[in-house]
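$ run holo --ligand "adenosine-5'-diphosphate-glucose" --emit C-alpha cells
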Amino acid sequence: MSRLVVISNRLADPRKPAAGGLAVALGEALNQTGGLWFGWSGTVVEGGTPGEGEMHTRSAGAVTLATVDLCREDHDAYYQGYSNSVLWPVFHYRLDLADFNASYIAGYRRVNQMFARKLLPLLRDDDVIWVHDYHLIPLAAELRAMGCCQRIGFFLHIPMPPPLIMAAIPQHEWLMRSLFAYDLVGLQSEADVAHFTRYVRNEGSAEEVGAQRLRAFGATVQVQAFPIGIDVDEFTRLAQAPDAVETYENIRDEYSRRRLLLGIDRLDYSKGIPHRVRAYRELLDRYPENRNSATMIMIASPSRDDVHAYSDLRQELEGLCGSVNGDYGELDWMPVRYIHRTVARKRVPGLCRAAAVGLVTPLRDGMNLVAKEYVVAQDPEDPGVLVLSRFAGAAEQLKEALLVNPYDTQGTADSIQHALQMPLPERQARHQKLMARIREHDVHWWRKAFLQALQEAGD
Ligand code: ADQ
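-- output --
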C-alpha cells in the first residue's frame, strides 16, 4: 500500500480526541500506512527571512508530523493576506470584504514554493499526496515544477464560487490553472462542481474527456463532489460520555421552563450570526408566545481577530444581542445568551441535545459540520429540529431539515416558529432520515471515497 502524505495549513495531533473528527479521520488514514503530515507549525518568527522557515519533525505514533515556521512577512501576506482577506471572502461571495492588496500574492506564492521545496526531499516515489484547502491551491503546480510525479489530490473545504465572482480575483486564471496540476480535485457539493465546470468551460475552453474528467489549460483533471461528514461513532461516544451527559442535565435543569435555540460557530461573517439574531428578534416580535419562554444560546469561538472584518463583526453582534436583551428581556429572562468562546468539544453534544432547535444559518458555507453534529446528538425518541441555511453545502444532503434563506428575516423567523411547533411524529420521522444520510456519508466514507478516486484518477 502506498504511503499517504497529507498537507494542510495547520496540523493536529491525531491521537488527541480534542482534535475533532477530521483530524482523527486523517490520522487514522495516516496511521494505516505510516504516513507523513506536513504544514505550517503555527509559529511566526519576527524578523525572519521571507521564503525561509525552520522545519521541525516529530512522531505521533506511526505518523511523522513535519512543520515549518513562517516569518512575519510571509505570515501576513500568505495567511492573513491572500488566504484570509482574498480567497476566504471571495469564495464565500463577499467581494465587499475582500482586500485585493497587490503585495499579498507574492507572499502566497513564496510560501507555497517554500512548502514544496521543504516537502520534496521527504517524499518517496510511491507516495500518494493529499493537499487540503485554499491556502495551498498552487502547491501541486510548484511540486510538479520541481519534478514531483506522484499522484496528488486536492480537497477544497470551502465553496467554489460561480465564475463571475471568481473572476473578481486578479489572479483567478492562474489559480484555476494551478488546480490542473492535481490528478483529482474534490469539492464539497454538486453546486461547487457545477461552478468549477462552468468556469473552465468559459475561461479555459474545457472539454469533458470522460466521466468527471475535464481537459483545459493543456492538462486533464478529475473533479468530483465528496461531501465531508463527521465521525458519527466518535460523536455518539462523546454524547454518551459523562461530560456530555452532565452538560445536558445542567442545561436542561437550568432552562427547565424554556425552549432552547442553539447556534455554535466560529465567529465568522460567513456564518450569518447577525442575521440569526435579527430572525430571532422577528420571532419574538411576530410570535409573542415565545417571549419569556424561548432562549437563544449563541456560542461563537474567537477567530482571526487580527483581520478587520472580524472585529467589526464582533462589535455588530454585541450591539444586536444587547438590543434584543434590552428591548425584550425581563428580570428573570434574558432572551439571548451570547458567549464569545470555544466550548470544550466534550460539552458540544450535551449542548446540542438540550436544544429544541439547532440554528445553522450561514450565508455561505462549504459544508458545515455543526449541522450534522446537532442531528447526531439528538435523542431519537424526542429529537430537536434543525433549521438549516440553503446556502450551506450540507443543505444538498440534509433535505429533511427546515431549509431557510438567512437573508429573509421573516421567513427564517417563520421556520423557527414551525420548528418550535413541530409535532413529535414529524420530528422523529425527519430525524430518522437525516441520521441515515449522515451515517451513510460519514467522515470515514469521505476519506475512503476520496483516496479511492485518487488511486484510480488517470488510470
Ligand atoms: P469551519 O468553517 O471551521 O470549517 P464547521 O464545518 O462548522 O466550520 O466546523 C466547525 C467545527 O468546530 C465543528 O466540529 C464544531 O463543533 C466546532 N466548533 C465551532 N464553533 C465552536 C465553538 N464555539 N466551540 C466549540 N466548538 C466549536 C471549514 C469550512 C466548512 C466545512 C469544514 C470541514 O468552512 O464549511 O464544513 O471546514 O470541511
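-- notes --
The longest strand covers residues 36-45.
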